[in-house]
Amino acid sequence: MKMIVAPLLRIFFRPWMEGEENIPDEGPAILASNHLSFSDSFFLPALLKRRVTFIAKAEYFTTPGIKGRLTAAFFKGVGQLPVDRSGARGAGEAAIRSGIAVIERGEVFGVYPEGTRSPDGKLYRGKVGGLARVALATGAPVIPVAMIDTEKVQPPGQVIPNFGVRPGIRIGRPLDFSRYQGMENDRFILRSVTDEVMYEIMRLSGQEYVDIYATAAKRQLAEEKKAAEADRKAQQKADKAAEEAEKAAEQAAEQEKAAGQEKDAGA
How many Cβ atoms from other residues are within 10 Å of residue 127's Cβ? Predict the structure, then answer.
């Protein structure tokens, strides 16, 4: 990843980075990043000096076909941890255990607090759970990270990246939540910690913040898209009906004209 992918990314995209000195050279740390694009999983771990271990949905490791095998090989190769998301609570507990294990090994654990990619480039509410609970259970510092313009490199649903975009990574100063250590079961503390991290990510990224979960925003956008598509089809149907009515009127007028001409000829 660092010897092959990173040089290629630097050559083709010329990414910039600010604040890398905020990541310790050794010892445990948690990177909390916004999530704009699938390419975040390439740029962030490839360009940093230290190895970053993220959790990844199990589907990346089990999808059939050539593409699925290549995806699984990539995620295994960079040390990502599969988590089965079929049961929300079980998936959350598995992610927390995985994160704690990474921190206890003295490594860097990466997490996307929003839980999924932003559907429109805005920053959404961080989910209470993995980030805050791992931080409070281990005492590891949380380092906010802002990915910049990666959604322009690879918009959602697009496979081939756009090579004319120069993305960036902005890394903030570590946040110390050791004062809350041992309080990882207090939901109010978890929310406070998560919101503080999200505020720092917002400040670093310059994104507009929306105080709802990204998953809810995706549902809203999907419903709006569905409604817009229904309106479009209804309008097309109405336009077609109007066109057919206009044609019928023209045909009736032509028939009436032809009948009048025949009558005049007979007279």
Answer: 21
What is d(CA 78, CA 75) in angstroms, rounded to the nearest whole number? 5
Cα 199 to the chain's mean position, in Å? Answer: 18
**122 vs 244, more confident:** 122
Four-residue CA torsion sign, 87, 92, 93, 94: positive
Contact call for residues 147 and 91 (beta carbons, < 8 A): no
Cα–Cα distance measured from residue 86 to residue 257, given in angstroms and rounded to the nearest whole number: 70
Report the range of poorest mean pLDDT among 4-8, 84-88, 227-231, 251-255. Answer: 84-88
Mind listing the pLDDT tens digit for each residue in 101-150? 999 999 999 999 998 899 999 999 999 878 999 999 999 999 999 999 99
Q: For residue range 81-112, what is the model confidence (pLDDT) as tens digits?
A: 777 655 555 557 877 888 899 999 999 999 99
Report the SS3 class of residue 108.
strand
Ranges of beta strands (E only) in the chain are 16-18, 29-33, 52-57, 81-83, 108-111, 123-124, 142-148, 168-171, 209-210
Q: Do strands 142-148 and 168-171 pair parallel, antiparallel, or not at all (unpaired)?
A: antiparallel
The answer to whether the beta carbons of residues 180 and 193 sit under 8 Å apart is: yes
Give the residue among 109, 126, 112, 123 at the shortest CA–CA distance from 52. Answer: 109
Q: In angstroms, rounded to a whole number, what is the distance separating the alpha carbons of residues 198 and 61?
A: 29
Structure tokens at 59: 């589907």
Q: What is the pTM of this model?
A: 0.80
Eight-class DSSP state of 175: B
Distances (CA, A) of 70 to 45, 124, 225: 18, 31, 32
- CB within 8 Å of 183: residues ≥ 6 apart: 136, 189
Task: Quote the radius of gyration of the chain (alpha carbons, Å).
Answer: 27
- Three-state DSSP class for 169? strand
